[in-house]
């Protein structure tokens, strides 16, 4: 298949491009600038110059491809409403371009559910509905197109998609530890985060494009829940600081914006995903990546 990938040069996207090419697919990636074009070409993929602010370009990419993998997101934590607006507009443009085609449309989503007392399951419906909700309610919007001849699929990623070179949430925790001299966890540190290595996540993205049925929800989850204290205790070994408990009232001061999330349970199961698609994560765990210095280089 010829796959159009947004976010193709991003953290997950670059790994997904490699996995798709290795499996014999052709890839055309959305590229914002010349360095992105060069990176895609070096990998062996084609580049379509443009971004999510120019919807005609991703729309054309979707029309010219056999399937779409939508991974791009602005992730502007200083202006989340703009990120949500852009995401919803992009999903709508891509999905509209695919109506009646029966082409796969796999989009990145998060592990949201109304009941945080248990892990999220693939059967859980996202509570994010409408333009003003998280990610602009893009998961529910995309899945609505499953009745319009679009093989739309939600691929839900964990809060930590880790690996050497990761600049996401775990990197922020390491930076906070280095800045303050203490690797913190909030309260007693029993809150837990699901995690997955980027190469395992990228492999599942390919399986979703190849196999998933319209309206499916897949969980890119290798570890159901790593306690935040365990995460914090792995950091000192890599950066040489002490582990410390942080009062919930001081979480934002110690961690920065990520303090809003580090005291929240974000656990999830991927049992159904693994059974249905034959996906079996094999890459290093989150703690293994931290301890071997994946966040200090």
Automatic annotation (TrEMBL):
Regions that span the bilayer: none
Which residues belong to any copy of the NAD-dependent epimerase/dehydratase domain? 3-213
InterPro entries recorded: Epimerase_deHydtase (IPR001509), NAD(P)-bd_dom_sf (IPR036291), NAD(P)-dependent_oxidoreduct (IPR051783)
CC annotations in GO = cytoplasm
Q: Which GO terms describe its molecular function?
A: aldehyde dehydrogenase (NAD+) activity
CDD domains for this protein: SDR_a7
Name of the protein this chain belongs to:
3-beta hydroxysteroid dehydrogenase
Q: List, alphabetically, the Pfam families matched.
A: Epimerase
Q: What species is this protein from?
A: Propioniciclava flava
